[in-house]
Amino acid sequence: MDYLVHHLTSYRYQRTVDRNYGRAHVEPRATPYQRVLSHEVTVEPAPAVLTAHTDVYGNSSTFLLVNGPHDALDVHSRARVTVLGREYPPERLAAPWESCTQDRWGNLMPAESVDFVLPSPRIRTIPAVREIAEQVFTPERPIGEALADLTHRIHTGFTYSSGATTVTSTLEEVLAARHGVCQDFSHVGVAVARCMGLAARYVSGYLRTASADPATLGTAPTGEMIGSAASHAWLSVLVPGCGWVDIDPTNNTFVDQRFVTTAWGRDYTDVPPLRGIVVGPAGNRSTLEVAVGVVPEARD
C-alpha cells in the first residue's frame, strides 16, 4: 500500500504569545515493513529554527522555534510511504510464550530491547496488571495465541472514550476506570507483557483514513478504524524468529498494511506527536485541533 500522509496540529492562543519551542515525532520511520519515499515538516508562522534529530531508538524528531509575537501555530507533516504486508513464521508464533522472555533470550537479545523489558515512567507492574497477565499468559501457551488474547481482552474489557483520559492519566487510573484511548490501551498491553518478562514497546503512528479502491489497489474497501482521525498508538512484542510483532488493542487486530509507523519508545513520554513550551502572558489559554489524513495513493 502506498499512502499520502498529512498530519496537521493547530494551536490558537487567546492572547498573543512571544515564543514557541516544540519537538514533533511525526516523521514516518523506515522499518522492515515500511519505506519512506518523502517527508517534510512546515510550520506557520515561519520558524527561526527547524532542525531534525535522531534519538537512541532511531526515531526522527523535528525541533522548532517560532521567535516573535503570534496568536496561532500550525505544524504540518506531509509524507509518502509504502507499507508492506507482514508475515510471521507460524512455527515461531506457535512456540510457548516462555521462550520469548528475557531470560530465554540471554545474550542474544538485541541491546536496544533491554529498555523495553524494564519499567518506564508511565508503565510499571501493579496488581491489576498482574491479574490480566496471569489470565493471558498461562503455562506453555503459544505466544501468537497469547498476543491475540491480550489484544481481545483489552478491546472488550475497556471502553474507548476520547474524553475519559488525558496525556497525564496514570496506568492506575485507566485500569480502575476501564475507559481511555489508544494511548491508554497500549500502555496496558505493554505493562502486561513486560510484567511477564517480555520485551514490549509503545508505538506511535497513523491509521488509514480512506477506503482503498480495489480496482487500483487490489484490496477490498474497508470502513474507518477507531482512532484514524488523529495520531494512533499500539504496541510491539519481541518474538524470537519473528522480530517485533505489533498488535492494536483499540481495533482488536494485529498490525497490517493499514498502519503507518512514526516512532517507538518505552511509553508515550518518549514519542509524543508534539510537545513544547510557550512563552507568553500568564494565564493565557489555547485551543488545539488535530487532523490526520492517510490516503491510499494509486500506483501507475
From TrEMBL:
<dbReference type="Pfam" id="PF01841">
    <property type="entry name" value="Transglut_core"/>
</dbReference>
<dbReference type="InterPro" id="IPR002931">
    <property type="entry name" value="Transglutaminase-like"/>
</dbReference>
<dbReference type="InterPro" id="IPR013589">
    <property type="entry name" value="Bac_transglu_N"/>
</dbReference>
<feature type="domain" description="Transglutaminase-like">
    <location>
        <begin position="174"/>
        <end position="251"/>
    </location>
</feature>
<dbReference type="Pfam" id="PF08379">
    <property type="entry name" value="Bact_transglu_N"/>
</dbReference>
<dbReference type="InterPro" id="IPR038765">
    <property type="entry name" value="Papain-like_cys_pep_sf"/>
</dbReference>
<protein>
    <recommendedName>
        <fullName>Transglutaminase-like domain-containing protein</fullName>
    </recommendedName>
</protein>
